[in-house]
Design goal:
The complex is a heterodimer. Chain A contains 21 helices and two strands. Chain A is mostly helical. In chain A, strands 1-2 form a two-stranded antiparallel ribbon. Chain A starts with a helix and ends in a 5-residue tail after the last helix. By secondary structure, chain B is α+β, with helices and mostly antiparallel strands. Chain B is elongated, with a radius of gyration of 26 Å. Classes of the chains: A mainly alpha, B alpha+beta.
Amino acid sequence: MRWVRQIGQWFDRRLQLAAPIREAAEHPIPRSTASWWYVFGTAALTVFLLQFVTGILLALTYVPSASESWSSLQALNHDVTLGWFIRAMHGWGSNFMVAIVLIHMVQVFLFGAYKFPRELTWIFGVFLLLLTFGMAFSGQVLRFDQDAYWGLGIGASIASRVPIAGPAIVSLMLGGPIIAGATLSRFFALHVFVIPGMLIGFVCLHVLMVLKLGANEWPMPGRPVKRATYVTEYHELTKNDGVPYTPYAIWKELFFAGFIVLAVAACALYFGPFGPTGRPDPTIIQTVPKPDYFFLWLYALLSLLPPSLETPALIVGPVLMIIGLLLLPFLSGEGEKSWRRRPIAVLTVLLIAITLSTFTHLAGYTPWSPHMNAWSGDPVPERFLHGATALQRQGALVFQAKQCRNCHSLGELGGQRGPALDSVAMRLTQDQLIRQVIQGGGNMPAYGKNLSPAETTALVAFLETLHPAGQAPAREAARDTVLRESGTHR
Amino acid sequence: MSNENMVSRRGLFMKIGIFFDGLVAIALAWPVGRFLLSSVTHSRGKAYVSWVPLGHVSDFPEGETRLATFRNPYVMPTDGKTADTACWVRRIVGEQFQVFAVNCAHLGCPVRWFPQSGLFMCPCHGGAYYRDGSRASGPPERGLFEYPHKIENEWVTIQAGELPTPGLSAALIAGKLPCAG
């Protein structure tokens, strides 16, 4: 084995890397830092490396051309040996990367690790988060299918709303007047060269600063950060109660990284690759585009915001959020690190987490979207037709044929854009039903021009039967009085 | 050399070198920038917007709205099917037409026409439009985008070539005012 050492020495005389590597590997860290809570950064780096490798493998087959990419993905899925597995690893890897980067960020935030002197580490971390989202979106575009095509259309529509520069941004983003070959090529360049290059650069700086400034010590309540004394205190801590990073902390990171890669592989094996969905053919409009998992919250937000707030929220919101994240270490660069003494920080994280997961959950079943096939596909439940008159049955037909069902459900089937109509007769009187159908309002289109008087009569006759058995339908009190006084009470 | 205010020969050469390299960089930045921004600056004007035939007038029955497709006038060799575009053609009566983009005025998803209820519905966020393209309900702030059109020798022809987006609607006939209903 002596010759191995000799070869090693030959190289190190020229490279001179052994000493700095050993120094970095064995740099002292506070004993409390060798914790299972400090493994997410390495895990994010591991998944990034995994994406790097699987991405290169995919590029061996993938063709970044609007006319060929879809077929090349099909070839990867079906023809190339284990092509489906590499695609699945890359797709699941991206989900994991977004998730781990977010978890890492929350951990750093709650442990106060962004405070002095690690402000710049946090700022580069914010850049890394944005770049990760950039990779996620551009990667979704490279899976050039129907969802990618219309997703780009949504991106262009959002970008076009930027005041003054909007149209120029859209042209720059699409590489031409429409979503086409040039669009895919430039997203390929972004996804494969530009953003990964920036990621590598910022990852190096981020990790370098962790090594130079030392890993954040476990936050203790009542031990606030002070600019004047922190560095001395930290060095005393690592001197008196420090351990070398290797092997005290690294073994946990190695285990967790391996576990994460296994988890990605398990998801890839079990669930398989993502798509591609239909061909990117803009003349096929029978499609319901949906973004990938990590942008679902945005999809939900865009349908729930009032129209007047949409443009400000879309254009100003992200800018404010990014500025807020970048300013955070300057606004609270000192003070308590422990989450036990930072209730607002904890509440902020909880609020954002609950909001995002609620929106994501909502986007899973899109109650705001009409069900395009409900009118022809969902049957009218039998109980609503039992004992119905001919006129009421005719009304049920009108109800289906005029696509009311696309937005209104009966018996929990149908769209959820409008209210369920199972008991609408208890909420609206006959007159109100007629007015609502003909004039619309409250987010419902007016049907006056598309319903004949006979159809309206039949439809309202059917709607009036929609109330639970034994419960009276809504009546207009004044009308009863008038009818009684005029002697025609029925 | 000991005088700090004196400019040394090598120091001067270094400064001239930096200045020279700066000039080279600026000279190269010009073509690089023009190449990068070529899709924005349109050095050849908006030549990609041109008149495209959709079909014979008789292909579109009076009082009905039909889907028509056309090849984008500006095509690159790798565009494949993406250069094909769909639009909704409404023939009101005689030579009175309306041609709508399929893209919802909210965020661009493809709207579908439902002749029975006379509505265009969007599958994404639930925007709805009346048969004349005006906004009926949902998040869109305006009506559907309309392509300028004309009838030439019995052919329905539209002026197309650009993806209609809310901010880019100047190239297209302004949509109907929001909330006609």
